[in-house]
Amino acid sequence: MTDLNNAGSAGHFFAFRLFPGEDLLEGIRKAVRSEGLRAGFVAAAVGSLSRACLRYAGKPDGTILEGCFETVSLSGTVEEGGEHLHASLSDPEGSVVGGHVMEGCIVRTTMEIILGELSELRFSREHCPSSTYMELAVHRRTNEKGE
Q: Where are the domains of the chain?
């Protein structure tokens, strides 16, 4: 793995909105592809979900939640080859649940998202022998195409 420690970079941001009925992950993936993000991150997100699918810590599968949920936080890294996102959601009573974002999170009223990109870096997902998962690897970009 070619992971860099303390890799600094200039960056830029862009914003978009997802509409009722859209899948959160698919919407983010579409934005990442359309902007050609190589080293992206979620800078901010506010909105609501009518359905959430979160994988809780140490669990192999996602848990589906149905109802009205406010997005308290959404954070993580994104690039064309994948993403690693976590969310915290509150229900109508204010109880909060959080976990790894899985496919099947459906926007209820809106989802306003600001993505940032580190313009001098490139992310990839590489097998990590320690965790046994595909994990983030950070690389310096080496040419004008961002590769």
A: 13-140
User: What pLDDT does 68 receive?
Assistant: 98
- Between CA 28 and CA 71 the distance in angstroms is 15
What residues form DSSP beta bridges with 92? none
Contact yes or no for 28/78 (Cβ under 8 A): yes
Pairing mode of beta strands 63-79, 82-90: antiparallel
Q: What is the C-alpha to C-alpha distance for residues 110 and 146, in angstroms, rounded to an integer? A: 32
Between 72 and 2, the more confident residue is 72
Instruction: Find the distance separating the first CA and the last CA of the chain, reported in whole Å.
Output: 16
Q: Give me the helices (H) in the chain, please.
A: 24-35
Cα 140 to Cα 131: distance, rounded to the nearest angstrom:
23
Give the CATH class of 13-140. alpha beta
- Is the Cβ–Cβ distance between 114 and 12 less than 8 Å? no
Mean pLDDT of 30-46: 97
Q: For residue 82, which of 142, 16, 127, 18 has the smallest C-alpha distance?
A: 127
Show the tokens assigned to 107. 């926007």
Query: Is pLDDT of 3 > 80?
Result: no
For tokens 């009573």, name the residue: 93
